[in-house]
Request: fold
Amino acid sequence: MTNEQNKSSSPRNVHRGMAISPGIVVAPAYRVETVSPLAPSTAGPFEVADELSRFEAACHKAAADLTDLIERVSSEIGAEESRIFQSHLFMVRDRAFIQKVTGLIAEHHISAEDAVNRTQAEYEQIFSAIDDDYLRERWDDLLDVVERLRQHLVESAPVESVRSDQSVVLVAREILPSQTLRLGERHIVGVVTERGSRTSHAAIIARSLGLPVVGGIPDIFNAVRNGDMIAVDGRDGIVIVNPGPEAESAYRKLEREFVDLKDKLIHNRHEPSVTSNGVAIELAANINNVADAKAAADVGATAIGLFRTEYLFMMHPSIPTEDEQTASYRAIVDAAPKGHVTIRTLDLGGDKILPYFPIEKESNPFLGFRSIRRALAHPEFFKHQVRAILRAGIEGRVRILLPMISTVEEIEIAREFIAQAKDELAREGLPFSSDVPLGIMVEVPSAAVAIDTLLDAVDFVSIGTNDLVQYLMAADRDNPNVAYLCDPLSPAVLRVLYQVIQACRKYEVDVAVCGEMAGRPRSAVALLAFGLRSLSMGPAFVPLIKELVHSLSTNRLIGLVDEILSQKKALGIHQILNSVLSEIDASIARLDAGPADPSSI
Reply:
């Protein structure tokens, strides 16, 4: 072991990024320099007909690769993940892209490789100027397609990014979707990148493969050498380089406990979610696609508490028709536990942009013309989605959830459009469910503060803690400079949540939490103490929270309310909940909390 590795962890060794895919792993680092290098330039001139023929052949071969890949991913991972590569297939066949490359060949008499290089460089300039995360992430998809074409032009196999006989953590500036797919075939147990986000296609695949991933760490590539020991905590977005023996031992213990607990939790999928004193707790799942719905059923979720429909739109080359939406929603209902699904209407704007639905640039899109505000301004668009949800409602128990509600007037307008949609379906003789409850997301401070003014107009409430926390704290949770403020266990956040939960209970309106808090044991303890009886989370967290529910008594939590709400600092709340969680189940407590300060280990 090197002298560096013998040192205790210091702040310089601890890097905080974005938690992209959960899990804990400790292994040597393996750096990958670049994901899609430009091919060397070649001297010309070249015969135009020959180069056009070579490019056409490369496109055909790439399309054949992707067709096979789509089928394999669909069968081995999931239909939704396969759509990532369907979008790549669209790019290979995209007329504008093909015309750009062939035009360069014809005009400049250059090789097909050089034409692809120039096209890549031109698109890179365009994408680098885009100020939208989702569209910038599509650059990775384009790079993936270009690399596939380049391989066929030079008739070479994909470059193997990792050549190692031992398990390693891949460290890269970025990683492409098809590369991520191949990680499962290598000795890679975790990934750390400088770029990346939770919604990137590479992140979606990594989560499907169960790989811990932390992204968004500036200059991490230069901070790491091949062979450096690296601890990756995909729960909290923490990476420690050369942690030292004490911290390394602590994280290896967490890694073992994480694996052991996951194995243990497999067996509780068929057990009811009931506390030790007999109180039933609904554990629902947040999903993006059919594969997630099936996973939710497999892990023992009782319902789909949040189906985010924007991913259906994002993965589609154009606006899905009403019939296409209806088919997708029916597939979700068929796959959902007991056919129970809460479908959120399109939450467009902010970080969710559709390339075929142009949105004007705003100085602050997260506070702008987005979500329900945009939907209600386009009633036909909104009604088509509502019609599709109502038509799918005959397959099971379906509910409609309106995002980002700020005022009661928005609910009233939405109800009027829903009534119009029902009248239209009735006139057209199309079967639909007339009994579809309407709920709202409480994620805007105005809705939380004046919750009592909204409850008469809705059938249920779902608290979206992810957005509510950052709006309350005026801090972007994805900005590493202010992310520390977005602590869901801060006094301000918990006081607001308590008020909303109590108001819903007073007015006898069903209430659930569907943000990340629902899947974290410490947060869940506080929410259950506040009287919440319904939690919705990522499918992977359902077994863990069910294990927690089995171990606790709601009677034990009653006295926590005053103790929590009297705290002036988040640290005090963390300490209280850590102590209670340790009493309930020490293994769950260790996995949820991790080291309070990694640099102190």
Summary: The chain is about 50% helix and 15% strand.
